[in-house]
Automatic annotation (TrEMBL), chain A:
Transmembrane region(s): 32-53, 226-247, 267-289, 295-317, 338-360, 416-437
Presence of the UniProt keyword Transmembrane helix in the record: yes
Keywords assigned: Cell membrane, Membrane, Transmembrane, Transmembrane helix, Transport
CDD domains reported for this sequence: TM_PBP2
Lineage: Bacteria, Pseudomonadati, Pseudomonadota, Alphaproteobacteria, Rhodobacterales
Full protein name: Phosphate transport system permease protein PstA
InterPro entries linked: DUF3333, MetI-like, MetI-like_sf, Phosphate_PstA
PANTHER family attached to this UniProt entry: PHOSPHATE TRANSPORT SYSTEM PERMEASE PROTEIN PSTA, PHOSPHATE TRANSPORT SYSTEM PERMEASE PROTEIN PSTA-RELATED
Membrane topology reported for the UniProt record: Multi-pass membrane protein
Annotated compartments: Cell inner membrane; Cell membrane
Residue stretches making up the ABC transmembrane type-1 domain: 222-434
Automatic annotation (TrEMBL), chain B:
Gene Ontology MF terms in the entry: ATP binding
Keywords per UniProt: ATP-binding, Nucleotide-binding, Phosphate transport, Transport
NCBIfam families according to UniProt: 3a0107s01c2
Protein name: Phosphate ABC transporter ATP-binding protein
Record has Transport as a keyword: yes
Pfam families (UniProt xref): ABC_tran
Phylogenetic placement of the source organism: Bacteria, Pseudomonadati, Pseudomonadota, Alphaproteobacteria, Rhodobacterales
Organism listed in the record: Parasedimentitalea denitrificans
InterPro entries according to UniProt: AAA+_ATPase (IPR003593), ABC_transporter-like_ATP-bd (IPR003439), ABC_transporter-like_CS (IPR017871), P-loop_NTPase (IPR027417), PstB-like (IPR005670)
All residue ranges annotated as the ABC transporter domain in the record: 18-260
Amino acid sequence: MSHITKEAHGGSLLAQSARTKKRNAAETRFKAFGIAAIAVSLLMLFVLVTTIIGKGWGAYQQTFITLQVELLEKKLDKKGNRNLSDIKKVSTFGYAPLIKSAVTAKVEELGVETGLKSKQLVGLLSKGAAAQLRDFVINNPDRIGDTVEFRFLASSRVDGYLKGRVHRESIDNDKNISPAQLDLVDALVLAGVVEKTFNIDFIIGADASDQRPEAAGMGVAMLGSLSMMMVVLALSLPIGVGASIYLEEFAPKNWLTDIIEVNISNLAAVPSIVFGILGLAVFINYMHLPMSAPLVGGLVLTLMTLPTIIISTRAALSAVPSSIRDAALGIGASRMQAVFHHVLPLAAPGILTGTIIGLAQALGETAPLLLIGMVGFIASNAPDTIAEGLMSPNSAMPAQIYEWAKRADPAFYERAWGGIILLLLFLVTMNTVAVILRRRFERRW
Amino acid sequence: MNDMTLLERKVETQDIKIEARNVQVHYGNTHAIKDVNVKIEDKTVTAFIGPSGCGKSTFLRCMNRMNDTIQACKVSGNILLDGEDIYDKRVDPVQLRAKVGMVFQKPNPFPKSIYDNVAYGPKIHGLYNTKSELDEIVETALRRAAIWDEVKDRLNAPGTGLSGGQQQRLCIARAVATAPEVLLMDEPCSALDPIATAQVEELIDELRQGFSVVIVTHSMQQAARVSQRTAFFHLGNLVEFGETGHVFTNPQDARTESYITGRIG
């Protein structure tokens, strides 16, 4: 007879026993926890995305003021010979009166009584307006003497007023803008002189000084990031994959390779700022590579990305069944042929995914860039060549965002959020590419 | 054992293809093969039988140095292929494996087309000059592996899409395509159904015309059906080696008798 003394499975199958009820309740509880956790994270994600878009959207719109400017010959080309070197002698300071008179003329034309001084009138425009005018004249000297229509960037306060960032109540202590100026803006809006349009310059333009947040853009920092990613990809993919293939397929398994393996895993967990200070010590102080250069940034990020790529590549290689290696070796392929003809193609999707995730990680990295001087530098021009892009000082997207976020003017704060949208778009794109590559190249064996 | 039909096979005296002398294999501290001496004849099917873990697969893998890939494995003694020691320092195992092909327990076609599976060996060994020569090699190999008629219309289909038995025959074709002199088969039918097994067994008998075949098998019936010579391994020792008919009907060793009558293993 049975040695089980308790009644084991007594009772009807139609009624749940106490133990079954308890087990089912535990399972239900666990499922509820899981659903709750997912719901909370989805909520967080939603809040995050809506906040970022809500705050950053302003950066993608910019306010412009259209004015007719008379390009007076006696101010811009006193000799009247259209000699470019003479024209270039007139600094932006010399263009200021033209803008002043253009604004004044517009206000008079509209018939608005403002009581504002001309300096305050010009204050509606960006401080870069005179430079914009000068660039136009230098490029088109034949237009001197004409009256030309210009779209000037509005100053950041005017821009903020139209975007709802600056309120009449909030400007009591603001010496950059007054209620009278805002009245004038309202009048200009009614007259159709002020318009808010999509801000392509934010995506392709360069960073601007503290005085001109309305002109700041991400474009050059994006080129900096791109140059760094090229360096990271060109170095970390071949080195990382090569090292992984050697370690996984060729290296003898002994205490030395064990130590190397442990240390690669440890490197993956080293804080990125440590790599930054290493880069400062080795690449800049010892090797005398240029400060703030994307080449150095790329080298530092390569150090950081290598462990990620090595670990994921080794995982992908060891996931290839050994029967494939046996098959190749069994018909007389050399080890290298077995690896490169059969194992590597099968591991490729995993390697690609690991690489792209490593790159995405590197793209968002800020801390090491602090130490090699890629933060706080304003690159006012886009580099002309790839070599210049690698060697000349630049910033990177996350560093640029950090730079904007710490500036005093709230207009920069908006730019920082806008920059985060761009950065996230980059990361989402890269991760999507990783998923697509994985789907496309994944083969079964 | 009733269904076992033992034919009185005439075993002709053949040239010795492989000769093992005092072979010892150690896996770390485990002594896996103990002093094995065996002579494998050309154009003969030799079966290795024995209970699980007796070392028959290990010994098979010694014969084309596939054990080199296992670090803990140490082989001593001599294995001579046509009188040359394959464990000599001057021997490149890659060159050896081109001469001594291997078919594995689990069908392991490359995840490539049927054609590429068979063509891979000739490609890496440079066995052809023109594309049409390669086509011919592939067709011959597939025919010898008795799978040509089933796949001739879909040579570009993936080899992994075939059924298990077809995959194993494809693997045999792949091994045959490199023109080996010896074909080692490690339980080639253990993952196959009876019909596929019968096809592969028939094929092994055909292949005997061209090579010396060594087959490791769990199934004594299979050994009896396909082989001319049988070696019985037990706990790392080669207990008995002789003509298949003799080993099965008139075993000399008590352990062999116990195994073939089903008392051990």
